[in-house]
Design brief:
heterodimer; A: about 75% helix; about 0% strand; globular; B: Alpha-Beta Plaits; 6-stranded mixed beta sheet; 13 helices; 13 strands; about 35% helix
């Protein structure tokens, strides 16, 4: 096309890469050029350090129960903790410190990746620039997933420095490369990515920033209410499978997936949690894409 | 655990409240004017080839949009030609914005089509290389700099990022390029919107109320820019409810009221079709006699200083009648309705609050 405005830059225009690849890079540029993403990362790092500290105190107490104050049960527990399996579990727990609340950072940033477009009225600019709305949402999904992975990476690096130091101070020797630890760390990555995308899907469905943020927090916190509900139901009907029921709540499913060993008594195996969490995420993203394609941008 | 969760929830809410409050900060620098800080940059003088001209025709055909039970746009059809500035006029709530958004595939029409160069916007290969749009002056992230806002659009569209700096200079925002959008005045926001629209060097420009919030200097700048772009052969469609501005800017008019087409044509032809609204100013020392000669079909409204406005007879008829009666005429002037009068006449009673 003839350059109507004399432009050195446009003369060099070079449309390499697919629309999706360009849009993913644009989404990262959006995240880089405002404070929000950086504030979230800083908050997450601070939170992870706090969580490591609290977890460390807890594990110290577990390893060294105070004689006289703690009963024989605690002493037995301390002895169990010092078996190879117990030590691996402690290392895994330290390496994923704070993940239960840490994923909320990924969840909320995922929400903001899409809702900030509507809150700042930039959705029209975005969709006029690229009218293929499904591709836009897919690019945002990739960005949200990468943000989740980045949070995980930041948390894991900090934990990987803190954990050996902590274990050394507790006079426990173990390797962080054992399967139990590696499994927990990798499943934790899956949880962070899944929650980032979950937030993106929720934001795409709801569009309103306020509603999506509150919705995300309610879904996450409310999930743990499911444990109460199913315990109540069990007390009424005495069906054993009801005790595994809470896994249908997304945050409980995530916890079941990540925890090595049962997350709560009668919890189903980890893969069930994984399938449930990923199922919710896929459903939300699919719904978000369908609605975004159909809805008017006003 | 519960305490930690509460901390996260409360923290999130506080942070959200901070986000929402952000938009009302008042420390905006006033840099509306196209003064020394924002020199007008001459645009390239190249003219578009005839083949490109045909690509730039906007055709709206039977366009209709219902929102719930409300018909915002009702069977609207019009054409916008390249090489001209077309004013898209209507009172607030007439369906102008909805129409422009249907043109840009942001809003799905209930019926009808809107095409640019015969192609739906969604089917354009590289939309922003063909069409530039300014939709809302407030359309950038408050914490992002003007330059970064444009670079994001470049990145999305596959345009070199250096283009952002070129258009910032073009609209006179070079000095404010690295300030956040939050600190932009309304006039600067409008300029940033225009800069975004020019990124792809498009054949067609669609602007929704671009003069809103501009001071007189800014309005003159916008007018000169749009006229220059039209002279280069581009299609320029500008919506507005500012009639005086349109009278000076537009070559053609599309007037809508209550979602329907009220008039379309050149400014002169739209005004001409309102000839029945014209009146004649007459000054004569013998006004009563002239009124008697003209008969009962005309309405004579005294205008002071031995003058009167006469409707119901044109200047020729009045002059002939005065000559036959031997009456002296000191002044005889035909006054065509101005755009405002035409506009009010065309849209009378059709303005809706939506």
């Amino acid at each position: 096309m003839t350059a109507l405005l004399d432009s050195a830059a446009l003369d060099q225009a070079d449309d390499t890469g697919t629309t999706l690849a360009r849009l993913v890079r644009a989404e990262f540029m959006k995240l880089r050029t405002t404070d929000t993403g950086w504030l979230f990362l800083a908050g997450f790092i601070a939170f992870t350090m706090l969580a490591l500290t609290i977890n460390g105190f807890g594990i110290h107490h577990q390893l060294y129960p105070q004689k006289g104050l703690d009963g024989p049960q605690a002493l037995a527990e301390a002895a169990r903790s010092r078996t190879p399996a117990g030590v691996a579990a402690i290392a895994a727990s330290m390496m994923t410190s704070g993940h239960l609340f840490g994923v909320i950072f990924a969840l909320l940033l995922g929400v903001l990746v899409v809702t900030s477009e509507f809150a700042n009225q930039t959705a029209a600019v975005t969709f006029v620039t690229v009218p293929r709305r499904a591709t836009v949402i897919k690019a945002k999904m990739a960005a949200a997933a990468c943000c989740g992975a980045l949070f995980w990476l930041a948390g894991t690096v900090i934990a990987a420095v803190a954990t050996p130091l902590f274990l050394y101070t507790q006079h426990i020797s173990t390797s962080l490369t054992g399967w139990t630890v590696a499994r927990s760390v990798l499943l934790n990555l899956l949880a962070f990515v899944a929650w980032g995308v979950f937030g993106l899907g929720l934001g795409a469905v709801l569009r309103s920033q306020m509603a999506s943020v509150i919705g995300a927090l309610v879904v996450y916190a409310g999930s743990f209410g499911a444990i109460l509900v199913f315990t109540l139901l069990y007390n009424l009907f005495h069906q054993a499978w009801l005790l595994a029921g809470p896994v249908i709540a997304p945050a409980v499913a995530s916890e079941v997936m990540v925890t090595s060993g049962p997350a709560f008594p009668y919890a189903p195996p980890g893969w069930v949690g994984g399938i449930i969490l990923i199922g919710y995420t896929v459903a939300l993203v699919a719904g978000g894409i369908a609605l975004t394609k159909r809805r008017d941008v006003i | 655990m519960v305490v930690l969760l509460a901390v996260v929830v409360i923290g999130g809410l506080v942070w959200l409240a901070r986000l929402n409050r952000g938009g009302t900060r008042t420390n905006r620098a006033r840099m509306d004017g196209a003064g020394p800080d924002f020199p007008d940059r001459p645009l390239g003088g190249r003219v578009v080839s005839p083949a490109l001209m045909s690509q730039g025709r906007i055709e709206v055909c039977g366009l209709t949009k219902d929102y719930g039970g409300v018909r915002a746009v009702d069977d609207l059809s019009f054409t916008v030609e390249p090489g001209r500035v077309t004013g898209f006029l209507g009172p607030n709530g007439a369906g102008k914005t909805t129409t422009l958004r249907m043109l840009l595939d942001l809003v799905e029409p209930t019926a009808g089509t809107a095409t640019i160069g015969g192609v739906r916007y969604a089917d354009l290969d590289q939309p922003i290389r063909c069409v530039g749009a300014v939709l809302e002056a407030g359309a950038a992230h408050k914490d992002r700099t003007g330059r970064d806002h444009l670079r994001v659009v470049c990145q999305s569209a596959g345009i070199p990022l250096a283009r952002a700096d070129e258009v910032l200079e073009l609209v006179g925002l070079g000095a404010a390029a690295r300030r956040t959008f939050r600190g932009y005045s309304l006039g600067m926001r409008q300029r940033l919107g225009v800069a975004a629209a020019l990124l792809g060097d498009p054949q067609v420009l669609i602007l929704d109320e671009p003069a809103n919030g501009l001071d007189p200097e800014g309005i003159r700048w916008m007018r000169d820019l749009l006229r220059t772009l039209a002279r280069q052969g581009r299609t320029v469609l500008v919506s507005s409810h500012l009639l005086g501005e349109m009278a000076q800017l537009a070559d053609d008019l599309v007037i809508v009221a209550a979602g329907r087409l009220a008039a379309q044509g050149t400014v002169a032809s739209v005004l001409g079709s309102m000839a029945y609204l014209s009146r004649t100013l007459v000054r004569t020392p013998e006004l009563e006699k002239l009124a008697a000669v003209l008969g009962s079909d005309v309405v004579v409204t005294p205008a002071g200083d031995s003058g009167a406005y006469i409707t119901g007879a044109d200047a020729v008829a009045i002059g002939d009648a005065a000559l036959r009666a031997g009456l002296a005429i000191h002044q005889l002037v035909t006054q065509l309705p101005d755009l405002e009068a035409a506009f009010l006449e065309l849209t009378a009673g059709k303005a809706a609050i939506r």
